[in-house]
Amino acid sequence: MEENILGHNISRERKQQNMTQEQLAEFSDLTVNYLSKIERGIAKKVSADSLYRIATALNVSMESFFLKDETAEQSIEVGPYHRQLDNYLSSLDIDKSEVICKHLLQVLKLSSN
Tens of pLDDT along 22-69? Predict the structure, then answer.
């Protein structure tokens, strides 16, 4: 039986980040059915675009999907909403990102009082 390094690494990374297949599907704009097939190694074709979307949603490099477990990149454990916010902020120019971060911190400070 052929080893499914790609699917295993995607599944492992998703689970390490406490993310469901449904959440990964939402964040990557792919279907749960397709992600499940990739993770199980039964997807007939996996495009570079799909891998890019998954890697972006998981905040890892595409290369990490093809490495054996012992050499795979280690990621910081954060939840899927944290990752989605981080991806959104990273897509903005620095000035807009800083303004949003400032407001978020003000809201957090107010909510802790």
Answer: 999 999 999 999 999 999 999 989 999 999 999 999 999 999 898 876
Single pTM value for the model = 0.62
User: What six digits make up the tokens of 40?
Assistant: 């199980």
3-state secondary structure 37-102: HHHHCCCCCCCHHHHHHHHHHHCCCHHHHHCCHHHCCCCCCCCHHHHHHHHHHHHCCHHHHHHHHH
User: How far is it, in rounded angstroms, from Cα 89 to Cα 65?
Assistant: 24
The residue to which tokens 């595409």 are assigned: 62
Give the CA count within 13 Å in the CB-facing half-sphere of 65. Answer: 22
Count CB neighbours of 43 within 10 A.
18
